[in-house]
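dumping this here before i forget
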Amino acid sequence: MSRIKGFTRELWVGLLGLAAMFVIYFLINFFKSIDIFDDTNKYRIEFVNIGEITNSAPVFINGCKVGNVSNIEHNFNESDIVYITVSISKGLRIPEGSYAEIHNKLMGGSTIHLMLGKGKGTIAPGEIMKGQLESGPMDEVGKMIPQIEAMLPKVDSM
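structure:
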């Protein structure tokens, strides 16, 4: 049995393997934009349509990133309801009357924007907020398609 400064090779290999697993764990969470050492509060948001939202999508308030989507769950008892759990910075207090909007980007992907209410109290972590899907620029273009189709024959004849 060979020894390296009092330890066997098997012990060194085991320690290096354990260290490698910790490094991989932290790197995966780093690339998923999850801050492991930061305490967050979790809030649930109720949506009927979540668009293209995915786990680890950013959450914004007034253009500042304040958290991430941590879980998406479909309520199979109520077929239209989808709950999104978001992790928000612990120091942030969300006033009553606040709601969430999903903004779809033009080139794909989605973000959640919290619209702060004017209530005097605050929403406690774990409570459910209402959410809605914002009509984006592609929805506006979709509304114009019938008008464009009506104009095409006239443009073609010119």
